[in-house]
Design goal:
Layout: E1 2-7, E2 12-19, E3 22-30, H1 42-64, E4 73-79, H2 83-100, E5 104-108, H3 109-115, E6 128-134, E7 137-145, E8 148-154, H4 160-170, H5 177-185, H6 210-221, H7 225-257, E9 262-266, H8 273-286, E10 289-291, H9 303-314
Parallel strand pairs: 1-4, 4-5, 6-9, 9-10
Antiparallel strand pairs: 1-2, 2-3, 6-7, 7-8
Length: about 325
């Protein structure tokens, strides 16, 4: 199948083309307008998508060396995400599909992340456990089979990506916070402070990051400006250690509890160097297979959306043109 994928769930305008059995283009237009605000401004994101969607799709088609008239279908994110941003991508996909008389398939953004490990290769065959750490999501998901998911654990408050962004802001680092904290932490001492890990008493696989965020805030407030500047790298390293270790701890518990020997990372925080290195060590120690997507497929992209869309379109599934954005969309089996 010759498919176009479109992703506009947050602040990345992305388009990708899948031809027959491989990805042939993957274009991501980042919205730099949000950096000065230290976070995504929904209205500005929507306006930027309106400006960027057409040239991004055109660039993806050109790089793939295919005319739009030869497409067989369009896969597009319809949730979860920012309502206005989702609306831009979904309406563009509908208009294009109607003009070309081809089907569309709505894709769950989180499911797209699960498919990210299968974009450039076969990826993990189900069953496997996916650690999804993307934007406002921190979830452990048991993938029974493609399209059938069971949520084993999730955050009770802040997601790990949000915690990185907030810690970066407190440390006066750039946005997005994940890469900035990771870079600074590489020069610091992770044993400087023992920040709390977000364990949940009544659920061994759930996460909590509000306490960690607050602990960083209180510690920084207790320091003089000079002390804060001197200890920034150590605070970053200690924060990162606490944030990452609970992800590893719960992932190992899930693998053991459900007797699964495959773990797949997905989402923007899957770029974190400490997480990747520590999980590689644990996989060698415990003998499970670890799947990590390339860095450019961890953050929001349309390659994962078109890959997921291909799965459903090849099964003969289609979405109605009445499909609307679902900002709080969940994986089907989540309760």
């Amino acid at each position: 199948m010759k498919l176009l994928g479109i992703e506009t769930s947050c602040d990345e305008t992305a388009a990708a083309v899948w031809l027959e059995d491989r990805l042939t283009s993957n274009i991501v237009a980042s919205q730099e307008v949000h950096q000065k605000y230290g976070g995504v401004v929904p209205e500005l994101a929507s306006r930027a998508h309106v400006q960027l969607i057409l040239p991004t799709v055109q660039k993806a088609l050109k790089e793939a060396e295919i005319e739009k008239e030869h497409l067989d279908g369009i896969a597009v994110t319809f949730g979860p995400g920012l309502a206005g941003s989702l609306l831009v991508g979904l309406n563009f996909a509908k208009a294009m599909a109607l003009a070309l008389d081809i089907p569309i398939i709505g894709v769950n953004h989180i499911e797209g992340h699960i498919f990210s490990n299968s974009v450039l290769g076969e990826g993990p065959p189900p069953p496997f456990i996916a650690l999804i750490i993307s934007g406002g999501h921190t979830q452990l998901v048991l993938v029974h089979e493609w399209g059938k998911y069971e949520i084993l654990g999730k955050t009770r408050d802040d997601a790990v990506g949000e915690a990185f962004d907030k810690a970066a802001k407190m440390l006066e680092l750039s946005y997005p916070g994940g890469p900035a904290v990771d870079k600074l932490a590489a020069t610091g001492d992770p044993e400087y402070l023992d920040f709390p890990k977000g364990r949940i008493k009544d659920s061994e696989l759930d996460f909590s990051y509000s306490g960690l965020k607050t602990a960083v805030l209180y510690h920084l407030q207790s320091l003089s400006p000079e002390e804060r500047e001197r200890s920034k790298a150590d605070v970053a390293a200690s924060f990162q250690k606490a944030a990452i270790e609970i992800l590893i701890e719960n992932s190992l518990k899930a693998l053991e509890k459900y007797q699964i020997d495959q773990l797949a990372l997905a989402g923007g925080v899957a770029c974190n160097s400490l997480l990747r290195n520590r999980l590689k060590e644990e996989s060698e120690k415990h003998g499970f297979k670890l799947f990590t997507p390339p860095l450019n497929l961890c953050t929001d992209n349309a390659a994962m959306i078109v890959r997921a869309g291909r799965f459903y379109l090849e099964r003969g599934e289609r979405s109605e043109f009445s499909l609307s954005p679902v900002p709080s969309l969940r994986l089907d089996s989540e309760d």
